[in-house]
Amino acid sequence: MATTPTPESDNRKARNRRVGFAMLLIALGMLGLGYAAVPLYRVFCQVTGYGGTPRRVDELQASGIKAIGKTISIRFDANIDRDMPWAFKPEQITQTISIGSRSMALFDAENNSDQTITGTASFNVSPDAAAAYFNKIQCFCFTEQTLQPHEKVRMPVIYYVDPKILDDKDAKDTEQITLSYTFHVAADSPSLAKK
User: Fold this and answer.
1) What total of structural domains would you count in the chain?
2) Straight-line distance from the first to the last Cα atom of the chain, in angstroms, rounded to the nearest whole number
3) Do 82 and 147 fall within a single domain?
4) Dihedral of CA 49/153/89/106: which sign?
5) 30 and 116 share a domain?
């Protein structure tokens, strides 16, 4: 026996369609935010120094910074992921620099394998309170690095510590900042990424 649609059942079906469509839009929006979260978080961390992420600045931004007489020690730490067949180390473990002045640190990397390997470096600054004032102008960590079998390279980092660190109650007494890198096999590295 067929039932005749009533205005009430038509209204219920229309409401259900609207609710279903709204839920679909919400689900698609959440999926889009999920994909955008990592790059947005990375940008947020680079701009604010949140979570020990050093700030990335360009030449124009760096040109307005003036050195002051106070010095600070910078310690360099280099690590490799357990699956990365490279040797990686800083040429100098520490540098003492004037706050506000540019400095360059060099890192040595060597591909110890018989294959071409592309690596990417993750990085961190500690203490976290100092990260907002540690600025990198140029860094090997900004792009992936490809080394041929047994190739050795020197990789520079040009940086400065912003004098505003001295105005921050949580960071002004910092005597040493540690810049730490860890190299990983890049996802698109032809030989090892599939392991």
Assistant:
1) 2
2) 63
3) yes
4) negative
5) no
User: For residues 150 and 110, is the Cβ–Cβ distance under 8 A?
Assistant: yes
Tell me what percent of the residues of the chain surpass a pLDDT of 70. Answer: 79
Rounded Cα–Cα distance for residues 161 and 62 (Å): 10
pLDDT digits (tens, 9 = 90+) for 107-164: 999 999 999 999 999 999 999 899 999 999 999 999 999 999 999 999 999 999 999 9
The position carrying tokens 């700030």 is 55
Residue 183's nearest CA partner among 75, 108, 125 is 108
Is residue 194 situated within a structural domain?
Answer: no
Residue 137 lies in a domain: yes
Q: How many CB atoms lie within 10 A of CB 36?
A: 10
68/139 Cα distance (integer angstroms): 24
Beta-sheet strands, E only, within the chain: 55-56, 71-80, 86-90, 94-98, 103-111, 117-126, 134-139, 145-147, 152-161, 176-185
**Same-domain check for residues 44 and 59:** no
Statement to judge: residues 91 and 128 lie in one domain: yes
Domain region containing 152: 53-185
Taking residues 2-26, report their average pLDDT: 77
Q: What's the pLDDT score for residue 22?
A: 82
**C-alpha span between 3 and 5 (Å, rounded):** 6
Q: Report the alpha-carbon distance of residue 32 to residue 17 in Å, rounded.
A: 22
Say whether 170 sits in a helix, a strand or coil. coil
